TrEMBL record:
SUPFAM superfamilies, per the entry: ARM repeat
This protein's name: XP_034995939.1uncharacterized protein LOC118097306
Keyword terms of this UniProt record: Repeat
Organism: Podarcis lilfordi
Domain called Maestro/Maestro-like HEAT-repeats: residue spans: 444-690
């Protein structure tokens, strides 16, 4: 028996043909032709299709296979002689599949006849090259086949005899995509049931077809759909062959196979999974399972999640997978807990996840109490359960170093909900228990990075972790500096808590002059934040900072300059009509910034008019004209948040200052004041427009009186005292409360 020939470079180099040499129109054959079997040129396509169908049916039977193969060779040779006669495209797949299978027949003559038939089929396929995928890879493969077939002046059927690899490689490249799929399905579905072929030969040939061409011209998903359909078919032989084919596909396209199978109930493809699990690389399959767990929030139905849980359950019970499970324990635990967290609202999705989690935790060598696992499956007790779980399995520390690495990786992936929160929660618990995560600079930097994470829960857990560092023996100076630097870039929803932590960090020791200045400047900057909660917290802590300085009896001159003091007062004053929580914080802060001033008209009522009047009086008496001028110009600068209420109170404060004493107004400044107030009069809000008009009138009158000289200013002040006019009349109509 001649042994099959593979396409190797040594064989090709022996053929001394030019690359441009083409295949002859026909190849001689040893088959004897019966004139009665010759195909007339006038035969229709349907007649030809029927004759080919009859031949294929005859080839299925071992008793008449030789004659059928002779008929096929004669028919194909005749087709070569009549270029106008074309083989129906739908027949190629079945012809190739059954002819290749006959080339593996135990009968020597059948093998030889089949190889000769394939030699005739090859140039016919070559003539229909327009159906082929035009890639350089295919063209090279076809050219090699032509050279082998043309060597020594005749056909070389030995190339195809008993050689699954060459059969699949050559004819898989020749067949168009649709017929390649037909050939593979014909082998797995029809021939395994309706013929006398050896199932082992079918499986070997099918395996080579799948290995060579499963992912080139025919999409893997198309093959999967075809094989899965056969695996659910009525015949035992067909189901077995389809399961075998799916396991072969998983060798080369495991990720695609896993993703495809998960869409069906686990019970429908349990046999397929058994073969896939037995043949797949455990490490690779574990990684894929974890990835699918990560993506479980995107699942469209409970079936996918329950299937995934059942698959993991099967994996955890297999001895061959124990090493891979331990190796990937952190990844699996984070992914599984993430899935549990995401589906707390729908217990149907979780299915048997509780038992799976028990099995997974058991791989650490510690048995976790059922009550702890139960807590993890309830939204209200999840955090408590996770803390208890980490402490329980933390007795075996082998899993913790890789867990820390996986946590950092999981938190870099912000796409899937659930997983980052779980990873961060485990990390904080490890830090709390000092299990391989310790208070140090690396830990702090990691926590500060997570302050910018997309998920709010991660940001809040990061704040909790930083608070743990504050309570540790970590270097406080580094902690203070890095924490303060993180404030400007932190997300608004955690800034109030961070400001509180900064306050704790700095007040845990004696504050120096530079510390006080940095803190005050930071709080003043955050007072203009877009979020009201941040503004309120910043203003509150600015007041507390100045209150602490007073309580410590520190000399004012060493803790702040006049410019800084007046700037802080202005920052607080302009927020007196902000949102409720901000306005309340501003009122409390005033008593710390200037405790000597009576800010409240009555003990139980706050008057904005009264407070601004008191502020104007205090500022005029306390600070020089130049510093007062600088503060007044500061009022005209737009706030970062551009709140109408802030602009309005800034204008009112400026009006009160000018009404009290306009000596701070320089000639060159009136243009700036006028431009700002005129722009305010164009605002869409009526209250702000009215305030702009009133303030502009007050500024112009005050400036005019200042120009008249000292005597006029003295008489004006005296008149105000006699008539008790602490407030400009223009403001009364635009204030929400009218002072008495």
């Amino acid at each position: 028996m001649n042994k099959g020939i593979d396409f190797d470079e040594d064989q090709i180099s022996e053929i001394s043909l030019e690359d441009g040499e083409d295949l002859p129109p026909s190849i001689p054959t040893t088959a004897s032709l019966d004139a009665a079997d010759l195909l007339p040129e006038s035969d229709s396509r349907d007649q030809l299709k029927n004759r080919l169908t009859d031949v294929v049916a005859a080839m299925k039977s071992g008793k008449i296979r030789r004659k059928a193969l002779r008929d096929l060779s004669a028919l194909l040779q005749k087709i070569q002689e009549y270029p106008s006669v074309a083989v129906p495209a739908c027949s190629y797949g079945q012809l190739v599949a059954i002819s290749c299978l006959c080339a593996l027949d135990p009968d020597p003559e059948s093998r030889q006849r089949a190889a000769e038939a394939l030699c005739h089929l090859l140039p016919i396929l070559r003539c229909n090259e327009e159906m082929l995928a035009r890639t350089s890879w295919n063209q090279t493969l076809i050219f090699r086949a032509e050279k082998v077939l043309k060597s020594t002046g005749g056909p070389v059927p030995e190339l195809f005899v008993n050689n699954c690899y060459s059969l699949a490689r050559v004819f898989g490249a020749f067949l168009p995509a649709e017929q390649l799929l037909e050939a593979v399905c014909f082998l797995a579905r029809d021939l395994v049931v309706e013929s006398s072929f050896n199932p082992l030969d079918i499986s070997h040939l099918l395996q080579e077809f799948i290995k060579q061409f499963g992912g080139t011209k025919v999409k893997v998903k198309v093959l999967l759909e075809a094989f899965y359909k056969i695996s659910q078919g009525p015949t035992v032989q067909g189901r077995s062959m389809a399961v075998f084919a799916l396991s072969i596909l998983s060798h080369h396209h495991l990720a695609t196979v896993v993703e495809y199978l998960l869409q069906f109930p686990f019970g429908h493809c349990e046999r397929v999974w058994k073969e896939v699990l037995a043949s797949a690389d455990p490490e690779q399959l574990i990684h894929l399972t974890a990835e699918q767990l990560y993506e479980s929030p995107l699942a469209e139905s409970a079936t996918e999640v329950q299937h995934l849980t059942s698959l993991l359950h099967a994996i955890l019970r297999m001895e061959d997978y124990k090493a891979a499970v331990r190796q990937n324990f952190p990844q699996l635990l984070i992914a599984l807990l993430g899935m549990v967290m995401n589906f707390h609202y729908d217990q149907e999705f979780l299915g048997g996840a509780k038992e799976v989690l028990h099995l997974l935790l058991g791989t650490t060598g510690e048995q976790v109490e059922a009550a702890i696992v139960d807590q993890l499956f309830c939204r209200e007790t999840f955090s408590q359960g996770l803390s208890a779980m980490v402490r329980a399995v933390g007795k075996r520390r082998w899993w913790i170093p890789p867990m820390v690495e996986n946590i950092i990786a999981a938190l870099e992936d912000q796409e899937f909900a659930g997983v980052p929160q779980v990873a961060a929660a485990i990390y904080i618990e490890l830090l709390s228990c000092r299990l391989e995560v310790y208070p140090c600079e690396d830990t702090l930097e990691q926590l500060l990075n997570w302050l910018a994470h997309d998920h709010l829960q991660v940001r809040k857990l990061s704040v909790r972790g930083i608070s743990l560092l504050l309570d540790s023996d970590m270097d406080p100076s580094l902690l203070r500096l890095l924490l303060l630097d993180s404030l400007p870039s932190a997300e608004a929803d955690v800034l109030p808590e961070l400001i509180e932590l900064v306050d704790q960090a700095y007040h845990s020791r004696e504050l120096g002059e530079e510390d006080l200045k940095m803190l005050a400047a930071t709080y003043c900057g955050l007072a203009a934040h877009e979020e009201a909660s941040v503004r309120a917290s910043a203003i509150q802590h600015l007041g507390l900072l100045r209150g602490w300085v007073r309580d410590q009896r520190l000399p004012i001159i060493t803790t702040t300059t006049e410019e800084e003091a007046i700037y802080e007062l202005v920052v607080v004053l302009i927020h007196l009509e902000d949102e409720d929580e901000v306005a309340k914080a501003a009122r409390r802060a005033l008593s710390h910034l200037a405790p000597q001033v009576k800010w409240w008209a009555r003990s139980n009522k706050f008057s904005l008019h009264f407070a601004l009047h008191q502020a104007a009086k205090h500022l005029s008496k306390t600070f020089s004209k130049d510093i007062l001028r600088s503060a007044a110009l500061t009022c005209t600068k737009p706030s970062a948040n551009r709140l109408p209420s802030v602009s309005r109170v800034a204008a009112l404060l400026l009006g009160h200052l000018a009404f009290r004493d306009a000596s701070f107004i320089h000639d060159q400044d009136m243009a700036s004041y006028g431009t700002w107030l005129e722009e305010m009069q164009q605002h869409e809000e009526e209250g702000l427009r009215q305030t702009g008009r009133s303030c502009l009138n007050i500024m112009q009158q005050a400036y005019k009186h200042r120009k008249k000289g000292r005597v006029q200013r003295f008489l004006r002040r005296l008149l105000h005292c006699v008539h008790r006019e602490p407030y400009p009349q223009e403001f009364l109509s635009c204030m929400p409360e009218h002072p008495q």
